[in-house]
Write a structure and sequence with these properties.
Number of strands: 10
Order of helices and strands: HEEEEEEEEEHEHHHHHHHHH
Oligomer: single chain
Low-confidence stretches: none
InterPro entries: AraC_XylS_family_regulators (IPR050204), Homeodomain-like_sf (IPR009057), HTH_AraC (IPR018060), Tscrpt_reg_AraC-type_HTH (IPR020449), Tscrpt_reg_HTH_AraC_N (IPR009594)
Strand order of the largest sheet: 1-2-9-4-7-10
Number of helices: 11
Organism: Marinomonas colpomeniae
Shape: globular
Protein name: AraC family transcriptional regulator N-terminal domain-containing protein
Mean pLDDT: 89
Distance between the termini: 40 Å
Structural class: alpha+beta
Helix content: 40-55%
Keywords: DNA-binding, Transcription, Transcription regulation
Largest sheet: 6 strands, antiparallel
Radius of gyration: 21 Å
Length: about 300
């Protein structure tokens, strides 16, 4: 196994030997998908990126500035995900790239047909928790820090694309399905959260989600939440997990982490953010944050201080 991993790494390094200084690309085809790894070795501006299918972008090292129609120009940093809709074009600046320390990004192009198949299944799974007549649109804009779990999917998927394995195509398809599912789940939760904020009393579930959102620093009492939802404890717990794919405690943790990242982006201190979200121990907050995102709170503040 170690020899196999070493061979994959050597093969990838050989393929990534630069033939051009800006967006030097190596690619690996898979079923309904294609992985590309881009290395840029010098500063550049307004480099075009466009694809005819859904394009997932994950930042690896360095920093980019993405010029988009949606949000103007936005920094694109390590541990962040960026989704490009089919036929959408962005223009990219590379402010930090240099020969000794290239800027590296990976993209995964996923066919419209494969995305549509997974999206139909996700809409069936999530239709009870979404607002009336709402459906998940896989092509909507997304730019967010991704979790450690998503990073592990990307690492595993990159390895599956590169390796010479008899089950390679099957493993790649599993990985692509998981990545798309995570993207769609993110969109679905965002839609539910927006609906909850405008109509908190629409259902027992929206009432509970609204309360959690307004009380992120408060320890959860599942019995109280079940009363809010007008359900027994066991029925509420089962319903919540079925609709949101996590327990109420896990959901609160995810929302705390997202709020923490937003506050750190706003250049709030780590200590201030920790206590705002109900953590009595700064070390405990930092440990949970690192477990969730794969980077420490101080790393986030340093990155955004520079950018």
């Amino acid at each position: 196994m170690n020899r196999s991993l070493s061979t994959e790494k050597t093969r990838l390094q050989q393929k990534r030997s630069p033939t051009q200084l800006v967006e030097n690309r190596v690619c690996f085809a898979g079923p309904h998908s294609e992985l590309s790894i881009y290395d840029t070795y010098e500063q550049a501006q307004k480099v075009s990126l466009k694809a005819d299918s859904l394009l997932y972008c994950g930042m690896v090292t360095g920093a980019k500035v993405m010029h988009t129609q949606h949000n103007g120009h936005v920094p694109f940093l390590p541990h962040e995900s960026f989704i490009l809709a089919p036929e959408e074009e962005v223009f990219i600046d590379f402010p930090e790239a240099r020969w000794e320390q290239p800027t590296t990004c990976l993209t995964i192009a996923i066919s419209k047909e494969r995305v549509a198949q997974i999206c139909d299944r996700m809409n069936d799974v999530m239709f009870k928790s979404l607002p009336y007549d709402a459906v998940i649109d896989p092509n909507q804009h997304l730019h967010t820090i991704h979790t450690q779990a998503t990073q592990q999917v990307l690492d595993r998927l990159t390895s599956d694309f590169v390796q010479n394995d008899p089950d390679r195509d099957l493993l790649v398809d599993f990985g692509v399905s998981e990545l798309v599912t995570r993207i769609l789940r993110h969109h679905g939760r965002d839609a539910l959260l927006r609906f909850t904020q405008s109509s908190p009393d629409a259902s027992g579930l929206t009432c509970v989600i609204y309360w959690i959102e307004q009380n992120l620093s408060t320890p959860l009492d599942v019995n109280l939440l079940a009363k809010m939802a007008c359900m027994s404890r066991s029925r509420f717990y089962e319903s919540f997990k079925r609709q949101l794919a996590c327990t109420p405690l896990e959901y609160q943790h995810q929302r705390r982490m997202n709020r923490a990242y937003q506050r750190l982006q706003e250049k709030r201190s780590v200590t201030e953010v920790s206590y705002e979200l109900g953590y009595q121990s700064l070390s405990h907050f930092s440990r949970r944050f690192h477990q969730h995102f794969g980077v420490s709170p101080r790393q986030v503040t340093q990155i955004h201080k520079v950018n």
